[in-house]
Amino acid sequence: MDISEIPIINDTDKAIDFPLADEGVEQELRKHGAPIRIEGEDADARRERLRNILEPSNHTFDDINEEQSGEDEDKDLEDDEIFYTPGDAKLYDARVEILHDSMKRSSQRIHKLKERAKEQDFTRVLKNRRHINSKLASYSLYGSQFIPGITRAISSIRFSKRSDLIACGSWDGSINILDSSSLNDKYKSGPGFHTEKVSALDWNFATEENSLVSGGNEGTINFWRLNQEEDKKLSPTESIKDAHNMRITKTLFHPRGNYIISTSFDQTWKLWDTNTSTCLLQQEGHSKEVFSGSIHPDGSLFASGGLDGMCYIWDLRSGRFIADLRKHVKGIYSVDWSPNGYHLATASGDCSVKIWDLRRIDRTNEELFSIPAHSKLVSEVRFFHRRESNDALTKDVALDSNGSFLVTSSYDGLINVWSADNWIKVNTLRGHNDKVMACDISGDGTWIASSGWDRSVKLWGI
Predict the structure, then answer these.
(1) Which spans of this chain does the record mark as coiled coil (predicted)?
(2) From CA 404, how far away is CA 382, in angstroms rounded?
């Protein structure tokens, strides 16, 4: 053997310089036309896939960059190659079910939008918008309640389907169900079901039963069902222990009601089957903690927001990654879809709320509008999702108030109400003595509930 044929360890002429950071790996995969993320793939597997792509050619990253320096910059933004990977049969069945259900929902939503557009004229629409804004400007404090026994901040709050109940989750691990008309305590969780902070709550709107799901910092997901004949001390009907190995930040019911999605500080979100309490999908993608999420009204898409300042949109029907929205300079703490199906709001630690239009998502992914919403971190953003048949906000029966406004809460102690027509603030609600951590809107739009650091629940009415 000739001496030139003896392999040299760390030969700089033949070695390939691989990036250590996952973000660098994703950039190089994009340059080579390979899919950035594959379902179920972690950072190590992604790096190994890049190695397999580059090893046949003895180029360094500097060589590759020099070769591509003269190419059009748009080349880096080309669509990723479609990549199919085998999945579990249960996940496949779930995707098919979600596909069929979302097609029905989207068809109904689009039909309503078309019918409403036929009946409208500019003058009627303008008068109705002014009427709605005048209603929103009349929000004022209706009641305030310090819930007995709660010792720490109330971090999450949600109206039930019929808006007759309000669920509250506290950092002391307790869950309280209040009567929305009086703010009196009706139900309370028993001790020990969440041993750490309750950071996530959501009601199941797919059923007439009052059922909800909660997530805690200890990593447990609990399912609850209210029964008027039973004791007021609640016990979960089902628990998923160690659902995540770190803090759970959101638990969300899918519109069908038989699936939930959870987000976590372990930088993943998971899709669960509520009938079997099994995890169907664990999805990575964020480089920091996943703090927020929202499921599209049709049930077809999921938007995840992370403390990396990124909002990712995922297709639940195919598992594909659709878009990355990266205009926030700090972490995203709340995400919500509008009932119209194409507007998405993201709330951030940079004190802004950005509005995105799904119809305008392209290679640049520019936001539709940026609202300088508060002077401190925006803790939650909520569009008005009308659930009541009687529209209490509009004076024209042919015009729907659904999605006509959104509400934001902030660590500056304020709740702001915004028009969804021009994104202008129409009201500011003052009453909390400290950070406001959560807010929600009733099904008819006449009530806003808020909770925060001062351990109080406040109800605002028109």
Answers:
(1) none
(2) 11
Cα separation, 71 vs 62, in Å, equals 15
pLDDT, tens digit, 9 for 90 and up, residues 269-279: 999 999 999 99
**Alpha carbons 297 and 191: distance in angstroms, whole number:** 34
Token pair for residue 245? 């190995």
Cα 96 from Cα 50, distance rounded (Å): 31
Q: Which two structure tokens, joined as six digits, stand for 400?
A: 């729907």
End-to-end CA distance of the chain: 89
Question: In 3-state terms, the chain is what percent helix, strand and coil (to 5)?
Answer: 20, 35, 45
In this predicted model, what pLDDT tens digit does every residue of 51-74 receive, in sequence order? 777 765 444 444 444 444 444 444
Please write the tens of the pLDDT for every residue from 104-119.
999 999 998 888 777 6
On whether the CB atoms of residues 37 and 321 are closer than 8 A, the answer is yes
Quote the Cα angle for 361-409-255, to 5°.
Answer: 55
Angle of the 43-54 helix axis to the 22-31 helix axis, nearest 10: 40
In this structure, is the dihedral angle defined by the CA atoms of residues 24, 26, 27 and 29, taken in order, positive or negative?
positive
Sorted by sequence, the CB contacts under 8 Å of residue 330 that are 6+ apart come out as 309, 348, 349, 350
Measure the CA–CA gap between 269 and 308, rounded to whole angstroms: 15
CB atoms within 10 A of CB 156: 26
Q: How far is CA 91 from the centre of its chain?
A: 21
Distance CA 280, CA 298 (A): 20
In the chain, the largest separation of any two C-alpha atoms, in whole Å, equals 92
Ordered strands of the 343-348 beta sheet: 332-337, 343-348, 353-357, 369-371
Q: Which residue has the tokens 């989207």?
A: 106
Instruction: State the Cα–Cα distance between residues 302 and 315, nearest whole angstrom.
Output: 7
Which tokens sit at 328? 């926030």
**Nearest-10 Cα torsion for 318, 324, 325, 329:** 140
Structure tokens at 183: 């703010």
The Cα–Cα gap between 273 and 211 comes to 15
Of 127, 96, 435, nearest in space to 299 by CA: 96
Which of helix, strand or coil describes residue 395? coil
| Cα separation, 187 vs 148, whole angstroms | 12
